[in-house]
Structure formats: C-alpha cells, structure tokens
Amino acid sequence: MDIFFELHRDIPREGPGDNASTRKAYALLTGLPERPRLLDIGCGPGMQTIELAKISAGSILAVDTHQPFLDELARRTDQEGLIKRITTLNKSMFELDFEPGSFDVLWSEGAIYIIGFEKGLQEWKPFLKEGGYLAVTELAWLKPDPPADPKFFWDENYPGMKTLEENLVIFRGAGYREISHFVLPESSWWDDYYTPLEKRIVMLSEKYRNDEEAVALLRESQRESDLYRKYSDWYGYVFYIMQYKEETD
To answer: Can you give the residue range of the structural domain that contains 181?
Structure first.
C-alpha cells in the first residue's frame, strides 16, 4: 500500500473525472435550497469537492479514509478561500452513521465501487432528505461482448462491474427516480488521472527498479492505462444522477 499511495500522491484525481462533468451533473439538480448541505463520499484529494463548493453555495462534508488526501483537500480549500464551506472527516464509507435526512445531496465520484454500487445506493439513501439527490460515477461496460483483454483485466480487478443498463435497473430498484445519466468523456480519464499517473510510473520505476513487488504494481498500473488507450469504446465511467422520493400510496 505504501507504493500505491506514493504512486497516487499529488495526482489531481484518484480516478477518471473532470470539473466540466461535475458541473454538468450538478446543474441537473433542481429545487435545492439556497445553501444545500452536501456529503462527498470517498472524496480523495477533492478536486470535485472544490468545484462543488464553487458552484453550489452550500456546505460540504468530505469523507475519506486516507488522511494525506484529506490534508491535501484542506490545503486546497484554504488556498481557494473555501475553508468555511468545506469540512473533512476521516471515516470509512462502511461506517457512516449520520442522522436520517441529514443531506440535500450525496456525491461520490469514482468511489462507490468500494462498497459496491447496489449496497451504496441502499445504505446511503437514509442520509438523504426527501427529494434529495444522489450523484455517483461508476465504471460500466458500454457495449456487449467486450474483447478478452479488458474483460480479463476488469474481471480480476472489479468483478462486480456491470453494464450501463444493468446499473440503471439497480438504482431504479433501489427506490430512486432517474434524473439523467451520461458517459464521461475520454479526456476525463487522461487529463487529471492517467497522464499524470503515467509520469509518476516512469519516475517510480527507476526509483524501485530493484523492488520486484513495487515494479509489478507499477506495471499493472501501466497496463490499466494501456488497456483504456486501446479499448475505450468498450467501457467507461458513467455519471448517474438520481432523486430520492419516498413512495406514497
């Protein structure tokens, strides 16, 4: 894990994403209070947290378990003059214990896979106010019958990965109303994630050239970006935007 966090240190994002997509998703949330309360689950270093604070006028609680990420977010928050709007909390998404109806918006970019898409939708829903929104990005197959190479890689690394349509069925069955969904552009994989990550892979490959375990992890990270470079038509991150509505007779 030390080499993993060294690899990911100072990377703008911990997964595919971009500020334009964050803004696009947030613009779909209508009828929010003037100063909504947001929970950013698995915030990482918080690029999307900062963007949400700029566009929402609300208060944000950003949750993650890796303290250096939270420290980086706190640094960025201070730099952007948003210290009164963003609070960080070191807490696992498996152990969230907020009061029911605490938030207007639940947000999670590239992190819900940790708890599992379906489980996250169910377990986080009580924290939403009636009419509140859940916005998440989730890795999904975009076409049927993917080639063997990406299928083998993702079966190993994310066996729970489903198709875009299967995820739509899951969140409808979890008691949410679909607002919208869209596939993140390829640039959101490269600009703030794979491109800076590949630069660190080159640097760390030299530093750890005599460490077999570290070299293996770095090669696997490079393999991931190489696969996306070749097979990006077959899979991607999908932004799902949904609303919690209590069922009435």
So the answer is: 15-190+235-244
Q: pLDDT by residue (tens digit) across 193-248?
A: 999 999 999 999 999 999 999 999 999 999 999 999 999 999 999 999 999 987 64
Number of domains in the chain: 1
Q: How far apart are CA 235 and CA 223, in angstroms?
A: 15
Encoding tokens for residue 232?
């990006």
**34 lies in a domain?**
yes
Asked whether the beta carbons of 238 and 183 are under 8 A apart, the reply is yes
Q: Does 41 reside within a domain?
A: yes
- Are 234 and 151 in contact by the 8 Å Cβ rule? The answer is no
pLDDT of residue 8: 87
Q: What is the DSSP letter of 29?
A: -
Overall average pLDDT of the 93-102 stretch: 97
pLDDT of residue 246: 72
What CATH number corresponds to the domain at position 129? 3.40.50.150
In angstroms, the CA 45 to CA 9 distance is 9
Amino acid found at 129:
K
Residues 132, 103 contacting (CB under 8 angstroms): yes
Query: Pseudo-torsion of CA 161, 163, 168, 171, nearest 10°?
Result: -10
103-117 mean pLDDT: 97
Q: Residue 233: what pLDDT?
A: 97
